[in-house]
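Weekly structure sync - notes
Attendees: PM, LS, DV (DV joined late)
Agenda: review two folding runs queued last week.

Item 1: First target. Sequence and structure tokens pasted below for the record.
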Amino acid sequence: MHPNSLKSVLPKKHKAPSFQLSARGRWSTWPAFASGQTVLKNHKPCCAPEERMPSNKQALLTIPKPRYLEQLESYLRKELQYLDLTQRNAQELRLQPYREIFEFFIDNFKTYKPLLSAIKNEYEATLAHQKETIRALEPLKAMVTTVSEECSQQILALQEKEKVEINMLKQEKQHLLKFIDDMKEEKSSLQTQVERLQTSVAEEYTRYLNEHGARKLLLAKLNDMHNEQLNVKQRQVQDVKGEDVVKLTLALKIARQDLTKTQVKLNAMIADYGDVVPRREFESLEKKYSDLQQEMETLKKDFDQLHKEYQTLLEIQRETAEERDNFFTELQQAQRSCTPRPNWAKCSEVIPGGADRWGCLAEGKTSDQLVDVLLEEIGTRLLKEMNVFPGRTGKRPVLPEFFLSYLQKRYGDTSAMEWSYTLYENMGLCPSNHVMSSFYNILTGKVGEEQYHIQNQLISNLQKELAACDSSNSGSLTSEQFRMALREAFPLKRRGSIQELIDASRYQLDSTEDLIDYKSLFKEDEEGNPEPFVAKIRSQYVREKQEYLRELRNNLGDLKEVNAEDLKAAFCTIDPDIDGQTLDTYIGLVYEVGREQTDQEVVPVDTALERLLAGDVRRVGPAAREESKTDCVGEYGDFQY
């Protein structure tokens, strides 16, 4: 290899490594060729191969590298030292010296030059394709960054706007509370004035009564004095004038009659008007009382209006908080669903009919619908290729029958009975063990087998919701995220039940921690007993079913027996959202017969409730009342599944 052939590739200050052949006129394959050229020292013909092995290895290690290989390595080191690796395209700069070394090989190995050139071209084409792919993905990366920034800005703007509104509402609330306090103080002051005025009126009334009594006494004294004066005057006149005694007696009698009439009239007037106050004072007091009463009614109306406005503001604040939570949930769902869209055009290569048929199938459909279409096409193709379909078994046996059959097949009829009695007695002695108590309840018919599977399905759905909220896959969630996941998994649970689950999830945490290790909540001990969190889910399942059946019993009223129509009407009343299929399932649990045989049969109400309690009976729609209820146990049984 001559230096003049590398002028366009190598810098001027470096020379291309010189061409070096081996002693036999071919390229050196060091160190593989050394085994045939090494002269062994101190060779003993009689020694074993194991004894000669170290000396052979030592001889191989003493063979030097070919000169051309050393020159290439030296050239590569120098080129790498001259590079500025702080630049953005440092990896491409590092690749250039390796390309030059590879071109040296291609130029010197004339025999392998076409193959090596093809390999190099293929790698160059692959690198160019990868660069084009990266360059095409750059705008998508920028768009994702822009969308993320816009979402963050919108969230911040919503938070700022909400913060301002909340502050305004708080200030207005404080102002209204202060105004209410002022109104209460004013009302108290007016009430005090009314009480003072009532006391004053009572005092005036007492004073008038006293004056009335004194006036009566004074009038009686005046009448007595007047009668005495008349008697004295009559005696004087009689003594002086010597008038007729008969005439004087008649005049005295008439005078006394007139006095009696006057006294009766005066007593009647005193009796009628003795308790009357002066009209001027009465009108003044009546006017004051009317003004105070009107002012009090006005203040009461204002207070009621302010109370209504305060309740309205509280409702608006609650709706705003719910709307904020919904926006946050939608944002999280949007962030989780922001994945690259698949290239559905590739499906045309595997669908019969090609691109035309796929275009007709995919027109106007969403990604979820396209997946269904693709699965239908694949399933149809598989059905066409199948010549035999597996047969279906009959009705699945219940667990007690299957368990006895298993023991008989495993241990024989005699031992099977011994095993069954032993297991039955031991399981009855261990009610605290979840697995054994569940198995015992199913074997004895206290609960149905489907309850076990339904509860496991509820727990599995909750695990999926928690994992979906854990976008970082850290195994931990905040209290708010945990609450939202519980709401998604159990939309019909009341707030009190959700809070019970949150409290059960934090039984091992400090009060200051906000992260919940949700994966550890589903662990079990060596005996299969779950953590308190899972136990609380199962107990709530039983409690909610008992509450549901209690509402059903109350709706049936005083009925002792019930038929299918009455039971359906009761279910529809307490659970308006129940569908026909679920309703038929519940009716089938009660009558233990097919749907067409339930119309003419009646069963005792207690028997119907016991059968429903043993099966999987749950509320389909939301309850009419949201307030929490106490645990209802006792009437339909009290057990933990």
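Item 2: Second target, run right after the first with the same settings.
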Amino acid sequence: MELTGLVLWLLCLLLLMLMEVSFAALSPSGINYEVVALMGIKNNLVDPHNVLENWDSNSVDPCSWRMITCTPDGYVSAFRGLPSQNLSGTLSPWIGNLTNLQSVLLQNNDISGRIPAAIGSLEKLQTLDLSSNTFSGEIPSSFGGLKNLNYLRLNNNSLTGACPQSLSNIGGLTLVDLSYNNLSGSFPRISARTLKIVGNPLICGPKESNCSTVLPEPLSFPPDALRGQPDSGKKGHHVAVAFGASFGAAFVVVIVVAFLVWWRYRHNQQIFFDVNEQYDPEVRLGHLKRFSFKELRAATNHFNSKNILGRGGFGIVYKASLNDGSIVAVKRLKDYNAAGGEIQFQTEVETISLAVHRNLLRLCGFCSTQNERLLVYPYMSNGSVASRLKDYIHGQPALDWTRRKRIALGTARGLVYLHEQCDPKIIHRDVKAANILLDEDFEAVVGDFGLAKLLDHRDSHVTTAVRGTVGHIAPEYLSTGQSSEKTDVFGFGILLLELITGHKAVDFGRAANQKGVMLDWVKKLHHDGRLSQMVDKDIKDNFVMVELEEMVQVALLCTQFNPSYRPKMSEVLKMLEGDGLAERWEASHKVETPRFRSCENPPQRYSDYIEESSLIVEAMELSGPR
């Protein structure tokens, strides 16, 4: 019996070693196969600034890593924050194992070698930007399999050979930029609204006469086009594992696998351990409580995915129950400024906590350790405006016309406080329905107003680090990367349109005639005198036409392309309260909008700014409630 036990023990040990390599493919409860893929990518890159420092092969949760965005069900969906990081080396074919990737942003680095053909297997990929690197070789023909691709940027590399004919198989492309390479041969018929191939002398000739850019076609935006929600998809990976063994050995394998699942589960509960908690958790900074990491870990049930309230560009928000029974929301920041240190973080948190207003989300406390930054807020029982726009209560819209007007006024008051009553002023930089929360009385509460200040100073030298959400970003911000309080005014104008229409600001649907920018659509309806057609159909006829017209006018004043023509938020608040709108609206029609952008023919539609901006793909990754 002892000999048999020893044999079984040795067999278990051997299987442990083997399973350490392959367990990722067997179960997310064990070694995450996405961790293996990401480590393969990291190992092939040269990272002089250690931006990938916390990518750890021992981790089972890559969603907590810097520069990584995940789907709500916990799979890697995007690389973000990696542009302009001086990365070199090569891009590993391991990227093809991240089967839920929707966006890859690696532009403005010095990555060389061939573009992995494995990228062509990423069926969910929507954005691929490898521009301004030193990639060489041919464009993989496998790219023809990227049926969901919207944006393809391979410009400013050293790519050679013919552009693959397979790219003509992709329908619905918004932008393809292959300019400034060394491509040759015949060029396929690529179905893209914008196609750029200049700077390829073997195709275009020395005078570029054959390479005029394909201009964007007009966007159409049917009123019901945005009703559907994108299919989040399910993760399906089928792995066949063959063991040439007897029935008894197979039984042992089952036992070992069960043991590994249990061991990995227990291990997963401990990955958040942080030794840097040498303080009294009752210590307060001003009115802020400093929580211990252990306390918040327990309050969220070890950051259990069942407690996730939302994910966004700055981190994941969890519902938490504290020791005293109170319910709070805990935001676990994913891209904190490690170089700044804990003292700087605490100082900035305390400064932001001084911004107290009934229409601003109050910061209750925080946790700061060597490896973690967490913020604690009151729990908002009615969620966000975005989450309630389509909800019903007792057969009636949760947000009727009266509540939507109150939300607009409350949000405006919160922004007035940030812009004009805080010293120094605070610019939100992502005003949208998903970031306006609702308390138990459906009063608007502006959330995340300080996170741009907390986290973006590490990018202060990079003017192209656009923060925001597609469709809400002001044109001058897209053009220059520089923001001001007038960018918040633009975002507020788009928020008003969200409240009126019940639609998202931009829809990047796959079907034909379902791509559009709400601002352009509203302007068209307003010009044609068809205001009632833009009102959310859930409201039906339960709105006041005069109030609708006034709100649309305020929204259009806020979203003027020239920032100097937009009103201040204090002026916006007065107009919403019925003071000065008529005069401001009349005056706006007497001034010709100057060409504030450095181009001969500035775009006349907001969608044109989105098409032209080289920064928009970065901003796309910050979409979602934060």
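Discussion on item 2: The longest helix spans residues 2-26.
Action: LS to circulate a short write-up before next sync.
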